[in-house]
Known about the structure:
Blueprint: H1 16-22, E1 26-31, E2 34-39, H2 44-51, H3 59-72
Antiparallel strand pairs: 1-2
Amino acid sequence: MSEKPVDERGRLTLAKDLRDRYGDRYRIVGLRHGIKLIPLADDPLDALRDEFADVAKSADELRGEARSAALDE
């Protein structure tokens, strides 16, 4: 962890190793006691495919299960 001041224009510079690891685009989320930077994927669809690559069920099966669970509640 490191400390970085903002410059006179309010900009914050991220270290190269962080940019290499997480990318150059971030969503900035204001929290109660600070902020959070969430890296944004260059291609959001590819990121979703990667995230759900191990899901064995189809979208229709998942949708049906979610519908059934909602009706049960």
